[in-house]
Amino acid sequence: MRNKILFGNWKMNKTNAEALEFANGLSDLVELASSHNVVLGIAPSYLALETLKKHTSGIVIASQNVHYLDHGAYTGEISVPMLKEIGINASIIGHSERRTYDNETNEKCHLKIVRLLQENMIPLYCVGETLEQFENGLTKEVVEEQIRIGLNNLDSADVSKIIIAYEPVWSIGTGKNASVEIAREVISFIRNVVEDMYGLNVANSIHILYGGSVKPENIDSYLLNDDIDGALVGGASLTKESFSLLLKKII
Ligand code: 13P
Questions:
Q1: 117-149 pLDDT tens trace
Q2: What percentage of the chain has pLDDT greater than the value 70?
């Protein structure tokens, strides 16, 4: 049985001082999560990564992006060795905001996933369709391409380390969460694609989360469902109160 994962993506929110304030007093929450076999994670801004890493334990701290090369003339980027040096072992890849604003293609996502796996780090790979694609019935086609290119030609032993997040772009930050039926259908479709690529054992062990307008009021309908392994949460992960409510609703 796969354990549940509750992951906060802070996006471009919280200064270092605000991240530190969040980290203080988090230990009860971490203990509660671990006693119910729930993995907690947070992806803060780059500047707050080290702060959260130093001032928390028992929680996965992830970057929101990473470059696939280790160094070079890539202004504004950070690399895997930089993350490793400060003890970070996970990174979001292919978030729709980066796909939209920063030309993050499926091919680049693939290179980043390969680089992370080389270092035994966890890629949290985001996939999902735009509103236009959804309305044109292209969801499965788009998501399949994202999965097939992103996860192409990997060592199958590594694939189960990847966490996939299905985040329909039209549901992110809009308050329009996808229905549980849609989330389930697409997530089980993703699992079938992974099975086709890497076999049943890998497909059964890989974690697939839902993301998009998840809140304390709706998280249980997703996570009390065996097909959906957790949630990647933006806005509702920003306060300790709301983050802890999200956890309490799923345990
Ligand atoms: P919201 O929960 O704010 O809709 O954001 C979802 C998201 O993009 C998480 O990565």
A1: 999 999 999 999 999 999 999 999 999 999 999
A2: 100
pLDDT score for 225: 81
Q: What is the CATH number of domain 4-250?
A: 3.20.20.70
| Every domain of the chain and the residues it spans | 4-250
> Which atom in ligand 1 lies closest to the alpha carbon of residue 173?
4
How many separate helices (H) and strands (E) can be counted in the chain?
13, 8
List of E strands, 18-145: 38-43, 60-61, 90-93, 122-127
Question: Residue 35's CB: how many other CB atoms inside 10 A?
Answer: 9
What's the 237 CA to ligand 1 centre distance in angstroms? 9
Stated pTM of the model: 0.97
Asked if residue 214 has its Cβ within 6 Å of ligand 1, the reply is yes
- pLDDT single digits (tens) 170-206: 999 888 889 999 999 999 999 999 999 999 999 999 9
For residue 237, which atom of ligand 1 is closest to its CA? 2
Among 67, 95, 110, 207, the active-site one is 95
